[in-house]
Amino acid sequence: MATEPPVERPNRAGGRDPLLEVGGLQTQFPVERGTVEAVATADLSIEPGEIVGLVGESGSGKSVLAQSLMGMVEAPGEVVGGVVALRDSDLVREFAAAFPDAVTDVSEEDLALVRADEPAITSDAEAAATLAGPGEFVFVESRDADGDPEAGFVDVRRAPEAALQRLRGGRISMVFQDPMNSMNPTLTVGEQIAETVRLHQDVGESVSLPAELKRKIVGAAKNGEAWRRAIEMLEAVEIPEAEARADDFPHEFSGGMRQRAMIAMALSCEPDLLIADEPTTALDVTIQAQILDELTALKDAFDTSILLITHDLAVVAETCDRVNVMYAGEIVERAPADELFANPQHPYTQGLIASTPRVSNPDDEIEPIQGNVPDLIDVPYACHFAPRCPESERECFEREPDFREVGESHEAACLRRGPPGDRL
Amino acid sequence: MSADGDQAPAAGSTGKSANASTGDFADAETVLEADGLEKYFSQSDSIFDRLLGGGGKVRAVDGVDLELRTGETLAVVGESGCGKSTLGQALLNLHKPTGGAVRYRGEDITGLSGRDMRPYRAEIQMIFQDPLASLNPRQTVGEILTAPMEVHGIGDSKADRRDRARDLLERVGLEARHVDRYPQQFSGGQQQRVGIARALAVEPDVIVADEPVSALDVSVQAQILQLLEDLQAEFDLSLLFITHDLSVVRHVADRVAVMYLGEIVETAPTDALFETQHHPYSEALLSAVPRIDPDARGGRIVLEGNVPSPINPPEGCRFHTRCHRVIPPADWEADQAAFRRAFTFRNRVESGAVDPEAARRRLEAEGEPSDDDAVAAHLLETSLPGSPSDLPSATREALEEAADLLVAGDEADAVDRLASVLSSPCQDETPAVVEPDPDRTAACHRTDPDAPGSPPADD
């Protein structure tokens, strides 16, 4: 970035610009009785090469958040606000060339003005997004001497379908909980990976309909670049005898191997960001251990950032660099993983950890959180955890909790935390 | 049963029955017992299959000995497909066992007909994993709870049974006024409470709980675990807890039985098992559990490959194809790790996973030499973990010959060639169940002093 940001950014740990910056994201589903705010407001950042955890119980909105990042929230659901900024200079150059009408230049002065007007906005991306005209989603923050974009970001939320198709599978890819339901049962595993490669990487193999039909009927050429790449990927995720297994159909794979194949497919185009939504939940614990080790190793090998979404605190504790805790559509706490589990601050996080049975301290009593996750239709109180919170007071129901600094790069959105003066 | 009442545990603060700390269920009377229990599912669908003997048999539960003692919580733990749920259902006669016996307080109840089984149904009840799927959506909670009472003659009148139902709802932490609601009007955790109330409606002795908290969120899961523990104390229940989750086991169980591929490989009091494991599978399973506390993390043991098919389980010890402690033959010249690598290659060849044609196609596509020697070298390189150079020379030669045989299409000869140098007592002989410590059993050659092969010397 050209100039030093004038205000301190709480989101920004370390010196590197985040790869992904999500600000004020809001996703809603209209239903008969009102509006389900699946994601009420979410801020999230992921730096290059990081594994970031998003942990929450069912109904917390973590999967909808992930779908919002990919621009694939199913109708009637809709992302109604916020910005999903994917920062990468190559990406900005590529998209500025492909979608010249959608480019907007934002200067540091513009951003300063926005920030002065709206003090609630803390991130550059969020500030820049307020300046976007209709149809604009490629934000250029600085240009080099030739006038080519040098820094900036693409806002996935505002991107049209054509742009999203370039992003999905290429720049951002996703691994789902149930690999059987996310693979095509009529194509061999190798062919499915090869297809992804053909679509997103220039390997000189046609993806036109006749070419696809021919492959479907007579089988794909086994000496093509795409097929070779597919086998390499299967090998990278440690599927034994990859060249033989590539010819198998998904149902011939075991659950663990299917998930490996999914990961191979997701990484085949070396995406900048991999979103893994409960990737090990359907798997046995010994297989889960293999897959998690695999993900960590692949992150380094492919230089990919990972957003790991799960309900399992122990998985997050073992795998992630930083963790975001989500409850009922809101992120309530974020911290480096070690810090979060050594020193949980938000009452929900504390309750969640206390209710998780552990192998290591059997004598600690497990203490359930009373009550249930609320219905997300027009939640009438400010802090969504207040009705179940052992520490809540009247004001918790009335005033929106803001994020407070509670430790080293550690924030919690709770009125009863933070510096003594601010504390309720 | 007169004296057993005294063993009724008070609510334990640690989450287990009170006697757990002393580990003294060893002397308690056995309530429910499996003796060599077998449940095979036939895969032959049609009459022709049956006549021709086609289709294999899935050996879901294969010779299980297990006893549930009065007032204890016994956890059966294993991975998916190990047969733990089938075991639970066979104990309740929901699946008719194909061999062995089930005894309830000494009485043989194996394969009883529905009518003969009825009195025992009042004593042995079940809780299922998916609460909604196991509750009739067209009945109110009141109807769901009073139906079993009616069948078993509990309560004097309709009104009395309804009162009992209201009372039960309060016992499981719901409200009495919910008696006229339908199951789908409750949340998942509340539905599981209804499932528990239904099991309790007939005042059973034994509850078999099959993954009762696996479908629930952690905060709700903790509520249900606490409820089960309170109820166990209140009603003096013996609980068979079937689960895949070792963290839950650690908190609720007094004893644990570890199951693999239809067999119980180890039983032990919970604390003892988490301290030391006598079976390598238990060891691997425990090491794979993710842990919140960084200090509690140890080396993870990564198991080779996938669980073999229960249709055709491996000979000898069923775990030997994946075991990290597989025993080398007595005349093995290198270390155990080297043996394990070579043995993995053998297992892959034997399972038919090594495909020379696919390897040749790949080499051709990459423009590499693809003559027979190159393909054989490629097979060794990709299917043998590590390098062949540090294996004993006789073994290395055998591996190379086997790879050549595979390329020549002689798969059977390749298998034989490998078997001639890579044999393990784990494959040749089925391990006997031994009692390495009091109240513990394990079925592993390494814990059996009389077993063949070299004893553990590698670590």
Task: Name its key features.
heterodimer, A: alpha/beta, eight-stranded mixed β-sheet, 33% helix, globular, B: 459 residues, alpha/beta, four-stranded antiparallel β-sheet, 16 helices, 15% strand, ATP binding (chain B), ABC_transp_ATP-bind (chain B)
Describe it for me?
The complex is a heterodimer of chains A (424) and B (459). With 424 residues, chain A is α/β, with parallel strands linked by helices. Chain A has a domain at 179-270. Chain A is 33% helix and 22% strand. Chain B is of the alpha/beta class. Chain B folds into two domains: 2-287, Rossmann fold (3-Layer(aba) Sandwich); 336-423, no CATH class. Chain B contains 16 helices and eleven strands. At the A-B interface, helix 8, helix 9, helix 10, helix 11 and helix 12 of A face helix 7, helix 8, helix 9, helix 10 and helix 12 of B.
What is the topology?
The complex is a heterodimer of chains A (424) and B (459).
Chain A: E1 20-31, E2 34-46, E3 51-55, H1 62-70, E4 78-87, H2 89-98, E5 103-105, H3 108-117, H4 124-129, E6 138-143, E7 149-155, H5 161-167, E8 172-175, H6 189-200, H7 209-218, H8 225-236, H9 242-245, H10 255-267, E9 273-277, H11 285-302, E10 305-310, H12 313-319, E11 322-327, E12 330-336, H13 337-342, H14 347-355, H15 394-398, E13 403-407, E14 410-413
Parallel strand pairs in A: 3-10, 3-11, 5-6, 8-9, 9-10
Antiparallel strand pairs in A: 1-2, 1-4, 4-7, 6-7, 11-12, 12-14, 13-14
Chain B: E1 30-42, H1 47-52, E2 57-69, E3 73-77, H2 84-91, E4 99-104, E5 107-108, H3 114-121, E6 124-127, H4 141-151, H5 158-171, H6 188-200, E7 206-210, H7 218-235, E8 238-243, H8 246-252, E9 255-260, E10 263-269, H9 270-275, H10 280-287, H11 336-350, H12 356-365, H13 372-383, H14 393-407, H15 411-421, H16 425-428, E11 441-442
Parallel strand pairs in B: 3-8, 3-9, 6-7, 7-8
Antiparallel strand pairs in B: 1-2, 1-4, 4-5, 9-10, 10-11
Helix pairs in contact in B: 4-5, 5-6, 6-7, 12-13, 13-14, 14-15
